[in-house]
Amino acid sequence: MVGPHPNSPEAVIFSGELMVEPLIGWSGIILFGSLMPSHTGIGSSPMGINGIILFGSLMPSHTGIGSSHMGINLFGPIVVLACLAEELRKALCTKNVPAKVYVGMRYWHPFTEEAIEQIKRDGITKLVVLPLYPQFSISTSGSSLRLLESIFREDEYLVNMQHTVIPSWYQREGYIKAMADLIAKELGSFDCPDKVMIFFSAHGVPLAYVEEAGDPYKAEMEECVDLIMEELEKRRITNAYTLAYQVMMPPLE
C-alpha cells in the first residue's frame, strides 16, 4: 500500500506484500501470504503447472482479530484471494499452462490441510511452493512451510511428490518495478514531490529471531528497500527515505 500519511502532509507510506511469477516445469504451486497487484508479473507463469495453492494468514474470531467490534471483515480478504486464484488460473491458461489454483490459510478456512486434500483428489504430481510474502521470515512463510513439511512427511501420497520451494522473491525485477511505479505515482499527488519522505513500513520480528535463529527477514527487507530506491533513482527520483519495523504485540525487542 502506498499513499499519503493521514497525519503528515509530506510523507509516503509503503507497506505491501506482492506476488511474482511461478516456475516453469511443475504441476502445482503453493502460494503463501498476502495479496498482489496484477502488474507485478503474475501470470507470466511456468509451463506444465496443473495446481496452485494460495496460502494466507487470516485469524479466527476468537483471537479478537476480525471480530465485529474492531470493524474488520474477514470475508473481504477471502473473497479477494478467491478472485486472485481465479485470475491466476486464467492467466496461466493464456500461456498454455492448464493449472488449478488452490487457496489455503494458516489460521482460517480454507485451511492448508483442506487445500492439500483437494490437491490429492485432483491428482497433482508436481508442486511449487510459492509464498506471497516477498521476504522470508521464520514467523510467516517459515511457519507455513513447517506445517507443510509435517504434512508431507506423514502422508504416503505426498512424501514422494516432486516439489520445490521458493522461499522469497523480493529481488525480482517485476516486483521492484511495481513498487517503484506505485511510489512514483503517489509522489505525483504532492505539491512538492521531491520534498516527500518515503517511509517503508515492515512487519516487526523479534530480535532473537534475527540474531539467534538466523532469520533473514531483516536483511532481505533492507536489500529490498535498497533495490526499490535504486529503481527510483534510475527515474531521477532521489527522495529521502527510511525503513521502520512495526511493533510486535506484545512488545518484544
List strands and helices in order, with pairings.
Blueprint: E1 2-4, E2 11-14, E3 29-32, E4 51-56, H1 75-93, E5 100-105, H2 112-121, E6 126-131, H3 141-154, H4 156-159, E7 162-165, H5 173-187, E8 197-202, H6 207-211, H7 217-234, E9 241-245
Parallel strand pairs: 2-8, 3-4, 3-6, 4-5, 6-7, 8-9
Antiparallel strand pairs: 1-2
Question: What does this protein structure show overall?
Answer:
This protein has 253 residues and is of the alpha/beta class. It has 7 helices and 9 strands; from the N terminus they run E-E-E-E-H-E-H-E-H-H-E-H-E-H-H-E. The strands form 2 sheets. Strands 5-4-3-6-7 form a 5-stranded parallel sheet, sandwiched between helices. Strands 1-2-8-9 form a 4-stranded mixed sheet, with helices on one face.
In short:
This protein is an alpha/beta fold.
Could you name the key traits of this structure?
5-stranded parallel beta sheet, 4-stranded mixed beta sheet, alpha/beta, 253 residues, 9 strands
